[in-house]
Amino acid sequence: MRRRGGARRVLLAALVLLLAVLGAVLSTVPGAVPAAAAPDPPRPTVDPAAPTPTAPVPGGPPQGSGPGGVTVGGEGLDTRGTVVVEGAPPLPDGVVAAGWLVADAGTGDVLAARDPHGRYYPASTLKTLTLLTLAHRLDPALVVEGTTEDEQMEGSRVGMIAGGRYPVALLFQALVLQSGNDAANALARAFGGTQATVQAMNATALDMGAFDTVAGTPSGLDVAGQSSSPYDLALFFRALVADPLTAAILTTPTAEMPGVEGRADPFQIQTQNPLAGYPGDLGGKTGFTDAARHTFVTAAERDGRRLVVSVMGTENVPLRAADQAALLLDWGFAVPPSLGGVGTLVDSAADVTPTAAPTTSAVPSPAGPADVAAGPSAPPSPGPDGPPALGAVALGAAAVAVVAATLIGRRRAVRRTRPGPEAPPPGRRGPPAAGTGGSPSTRP
Q: Which candidate in 124, 156, 219, 227 is catalytic?
């Protein structure tokens, strides 16, 4: 019984060995084992602990990308320079912004762009994402009480006062018309806090395919790592003008802020959109910080055609950001829709196809010293009798068969010679194990 148990254990060990050999061999057969997808690099994040940026990124901002490094909107937008749809008239003089984009909001065709996926500091144009994220998540009738923190917000403020009572609907208007950082802070508090709001903003951006955007504040105030791009701002504003609720907010000319007894009388606020008088204007959002410089995003409609324009990283001289946007709108309306575009504004992240991971059947490039040290990147060529991997499989199977036959013969021999000492059965020597001899070399 012990001999039979030992035989079974040896046979089991041989089978395990064969499975290990088969796994190793099949990994070298093209298509036999699916290639693992290349891990997607981690998305950029903000770093609140880092010093607040006080100037644009030296040498220009990094270029954004989608999952797997894919260029969102098409490879035609994979550029740090300027691209224009073929057949379009010359671009207007005076458009000097580091990054900009003009697109047909209806078809999604990008008519022209400069550094469309550059990840610039957005300043208050990021409030377009704040509005997009919260507009349908907060009850417009909800009343938010002002706090001392609201009063002390850095940058532009609408004039909220501690103890004042402000409906959410009014705070949305204050966010857009006066770019109120105090209004942004109050809206975030109503949603559950700054952290919850920023998380929701980033989730909204990713759902839309705006992979260049990393929100760190609801207001757009600079924080290390925060970014957006001409492409992403166009996505946000196109969505805003398509939604009746937010479209109405964008075109509101004035609003009334309530007074606080003993501290302030009621007062009126007006839109700060520099293109409010542009023919067919659908709204606009300005932005400025030391790190972002001047930014602007807008949209307009003419003869049933809507265009969206974003401008980032520019100065007020020779032309303001809004004036450059107006030039691009004029130019864009002169571009025939039949020309198509150099890329497209995606409808959602579902339209973004990650770059395919390399497979083991790819043709290898000439091996350098590092490649030789790491081993080959592709399996050896098949020989006259078929792929060498299959030969190794057959050899492994034969080895196990021989081992099994040897064990069976050994058991029979044991039964015949029970009275005497065991003797190895003659003529039962198997071939060497697979890989110890006869296998083709995989070295270059």
A: 124
What would the pLDDT profile of 143-175 be if each residue is shown by its tens digit?
A: 999 999 999 999 999 999 999 999 999 999 999
Domain extent listing, the chain:
1-32+389-444, 67-350
Task: Write down the catalytic residue from 179, 227, 229, 310.
Answer: 179
Judge whether 179 counts as a catalytic residue.
yes
Superfamily of domain 67-350: DD-peptidase/beta-lactamase superfamily (3.40.710.10)
In this prediction the pTM is 0.74
Say which DSSP state 268 is in.
E
Alpha helix locations (H) across 222-347?
A: 230-242, 244-250, 321-334
Alpha-carbon distance of 51 to 221, in angstroms, equals: 13
User: Do residues 235 and 206 touch, judged by C-beta distance below 8 A?
Assistant: no
| Segment 213-227, tens digit of pLDDT | 999 999 999 999 999
For this structure, is 127 an active site residue?
yes
And the tokens for 84? 């224009």
